[in-house]
Each structure stands twice: as C-alpha cells, then as structure tokens.
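A reminder from the course coordinator: this example appears on the midterm review sheet, so study it carefully.

Given structure:
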C-alpha cells in the first residue's frame, strides 16, 4: 500500500498571518457559515448558572483582560501564561487575551499535585499563573518551589471565592481595570507566513517515553485543523439540504471535555464556535446525572465524548429515563471503542450521526473522523483522513504494510505542531510517528489496534510507565517499583 491521501476534499487557502483569536473573533473564512442574528445568539453558556456571553461581550472581555494583564504583569511577546483551572466561563477569554498580547498559553491539569505543576511551570518557563481559587493552595506551593513570586498569580472569579484570597487580582477585576484604562499594548498583525512559526500553545504530550513534554503549537495549526474539519464535514456547503448538514448555526454543543487538553480546546469549543454553534460549558466537577440534565435542559444537539463517558451512557440505569431524540451528532475520541459499545450508543441516541475520531496533540488534534456521508461509522473505525493529510502504515522493518495489515501509523498534516519545545531536531521533522498500531482498509478508514509505545491509557489520557513509577516511588513507604505488562486493572473511584 502506497501513501494514502484524504478522500474528503481539497483545502481552501488557509490564512497564515492570523492568530487564533483573530481567526475566531474577527475573521470570516470562506468555509465558515454566517450566523443569523449573530449578536443576539449566545456563543458560550455556563451550564450551572445559565450565564451567557455573546460575540461582542467576548471580544470586549478578551480585550479588557489583555489590557489588564499587561498593566498588572507587563507581559511581553512570547511570554508564557499558564492557566491552572477546570473549565470556567472565562477560560477561553483568558486564552484569547493571552493571544491578543502575543503571548503563549499553556493549560495545566487542575488535578495536578504541586510537584506536577512545578514541572510544567519550569518546563514552560511560565511567568504568570491564572488559577482557579479552589486549587490556589497547589498553585502557591508550586510557585514557591519554582521560584515564581506569588504576585504573578491571578484568580478566576467564583461565587464563593474566600475573602482571604482578596490579595490576588481576579480576572473580572483585571477586565474592569483594562476597560477603564487607556490601551497599554498594540495587538500586532502577523507577517505573511508568521502564523506557521509563532507559538500559540504549549500543550503537554507523553511522546514515546518518559515524562510529558511541551509541544509547541503555532497559531496556523489549530486554524488549519478547524478548516480541515469544516471541509471534511462540508460545513457551509449549500449543496447539502439544511436538515442534512452536520454542523450548522443554531446547533448547541455540550462542552464537557477539559479545556487544558487540545481535544477540548480545539474540537469541542473553537471548531463549534467557528460553525456558528452555541457551546454549553460544563464548569463543575463532572457528574454524570447532572450532565444528563444539562443535555435535556439546553437541548444539546452535539456531543464530543471520551470512552468513560460513553461507557456510562451504555450502562447507567438513569439513561433510560431521558429522551435524547434532539441529539444529532455524537463522536468519541482518545481511545477506540468496540462494536458492541458503539451499537449501544446508537440505541441511546437514535437520531444522531455517531462515530469515532482519532488524533494527537502533536498533530493539533484531529487526524481522522467518520465520513460525512455516513450516519453510522464502520464498526471499530476511527474514520477517514481529514483533507490535506497524507498517511502510511509502516511495518516494524520500515516497509509499507498492505491494506488490512497492521503497522505503525505515520502521518503528515499541515496542522502539525512545531515539535517538542526546545528540540530543534523535532521541529525539522515533517512526518509524525504516532506510536499507534493500526490497519487501513481500501476505503481509507483507519482502525486503531494497539499502542506501540510504552504508554498506558487512563480515562482517555496517556500516562508514561516511568511517570507512574516516579509517582509511586514518591510515597515514603515504597522502596522500589516494577512495571508488569499484560494486566487490565479497573480504575476505581473519582479521585
């Protein structure tokens, strides 16, 4: 089998002189649908409170926060601002404010321990932390170890923020200051081609071995992946009847995926906003019964899930009490699902197009997704390549595998990251070795079989065995550890 090209269309011109915030808030691409009553329809809604922000309010808040952050912290071009928080109504506002300043955003897992956060602060050379108040003690401890002054911390606002934390500036306070003060910065227009090299995100990936590493993602990468998804799904294609269009203005997407992860940041939010949809953001700690209520309350039409969510939809007895007839689209990423599980998903969401997707942080999210002309995906398939992507399946000896034969998936995509931050050799690499064993059929569909690299999958997230060993060895009662493969262990509890 030779190298395979995507069967799903040709990419239109992709702007390479825009930042992501400019592309989403200020620019109308040819593949982007025009929202009806754009200024009246909410862009983002917080699920618990119903608080909503529209386009103009988001633009205003992003500018105000950018100005406030710059006044308070004197953020320079390419400085790194680390966001340590669960999903929050102002999370994307913070991302866009950081990008307005020409700075780089790095999202940290809100469940991190102090030691884990120290590692990310030091690996990214973060100069400012934007933190949720509930995990401020972890951030303060990490800042001390990383020798980052506490006066470089700002807090997201919550209804029950303790008064003792008033010594820290808040996002709302910075917005107010920024909007009441003369602009302290000039948002730079990128030169042609600069979007391909100017870093937008430092997201962490396990790579092939060892501790997670910062992946440098330029602005051009998420912009490209959004357009790839739009072309694949024939968004804004007036040749398709309105009722058959997969993504359209007025649809509502549930956003339960964490925004510190590229899957949640790009596909679950930025892409949906690009399509003219409203995003209902889950901000509290995930509770499945609350999530069921949210789907019905907001008449959510689109769901992006990971396997633990899907399993709950398949097995939780409460699901049978709900009518999900309004859900039109369901997809799952992060790990492959069996035929039996996908069949059950289709029973729960009888009117939905349902299938799987596959991607990596290094490729800036989606590589394959189920075809637009199928309401149900081919059982077990991760879908077809997005437009502009080339792939091959390599045997262990480096030769190309035939159709339906296993091998490592190797891809080339215009949405590729710059590689591992600080690693010039990785930056020069044009092909991505995914570390996943797959097979590909003659229809161009990818079937993920196994992990070739030494990685564990825990609730859809990659964990390096060495990282797990280090965590266990940190316990005072543990003298040594040994990796044992081949055993499946059920993860219990919620912590």
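Designed residues:
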């Amino acid at each position: 089998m030779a190298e395979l090209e995507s069967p799903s269309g040709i990419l239109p011109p992709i702007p390479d002189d825009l930042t992501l915030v400019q592309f989403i808030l200020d620019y109308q691409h040819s593949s982007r649908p025009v929202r009806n009553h754009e200024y009246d329809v909410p862009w983002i809604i917080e699920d618990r409170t119903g608080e909503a922000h529209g386009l103009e309010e988001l633009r205003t808040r992003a500018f105000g926060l950018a100005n406030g952050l710059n006044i308070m912290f004197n953020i320079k071009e390419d400085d790194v601002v680390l966001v340590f928080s669960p999903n929050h109504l102002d999370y994307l506002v913070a991302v866009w404010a950081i990008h307005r300043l020409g700075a780089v955003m790095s999202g940290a897992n809100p469940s991190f321990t102090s030691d884990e956060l120290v590692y990310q602060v030091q690996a990214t050379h973060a100069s400012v932390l934007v933190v949720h108040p509930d995990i401020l003690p972890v951030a303060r401890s990490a800042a001390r170890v990383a020798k980052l002054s506490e006066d470089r911390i700002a807090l997201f606002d919550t209804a029950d923020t303790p008064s003792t934390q008033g010594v820290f500036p808040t996002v709302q306070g910075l917005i107010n200051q920024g909007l009441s003060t003369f602009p302290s910065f000039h948002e730079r227009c990128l030169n042609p081609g600069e979007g391909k090299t100017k870093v937008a995100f430092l997201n962490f990936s396990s790579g092939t071995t060892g501790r997670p590493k910062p992946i440098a993602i330029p602005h051009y990468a998420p912009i490209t992946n959004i357009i790839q998804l739009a072309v694949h799904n024939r968004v804004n294609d007036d040749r398709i009847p309105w009722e058959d269009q997969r993504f359209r203005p007025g649809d509502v997407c549930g956003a339960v995926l964490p925004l510190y992860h590229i899957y949640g940041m790009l596909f679950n939010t930025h892409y949906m906003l690009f399509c003219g949809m409203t995003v209902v953001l889950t901000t509290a700690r995930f509770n499945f019964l609350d999530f069921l209520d949210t789907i019905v309350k907001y008449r959510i039409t689109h769901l992006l899930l990971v396997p633990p969510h899907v399993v709950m939809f398949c097995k939780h007895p409460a699901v049978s009490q709900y009518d999900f007839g309004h859900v039109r689209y369901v997809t799952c990423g992060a790990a492959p699902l069996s035929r039996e599980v996908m069949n059950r998903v289709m029973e729960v969401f009888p009117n939905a197009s349902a299938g799987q997707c596959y991607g990596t942080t290094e490729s800036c999210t989606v590589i394959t997704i189920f075809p637009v002309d199928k309401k149900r995906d081919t059982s077990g398939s991760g879908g077809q390549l997005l437009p502009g992507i080339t792939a091959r399946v390599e045997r262990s000896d480096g030769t190309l595998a035939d159709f339906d034969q296993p091998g490592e998936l190797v891809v080339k995509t215009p949405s590729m990251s710059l590689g591992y931050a600080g690693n010039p050799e990785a930056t020069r690499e044009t092909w991505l070795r995914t570390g996943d064993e797959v097979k590909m059929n003659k229809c161009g569909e990818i079937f993920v079989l196994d992990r070739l690299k030494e990685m564990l999958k825990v609730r859809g997230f990659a964990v390096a065995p060495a990282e797990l060993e280090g965590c266990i060895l940190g316990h005072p009662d543990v003298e040594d550890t040994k990796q044992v493969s081949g055993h499946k262990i059920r993860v219990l509890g919620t912590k």
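The chain has a mean pLDDT of 89. The first strand starts at residue 4 and ends at 5.
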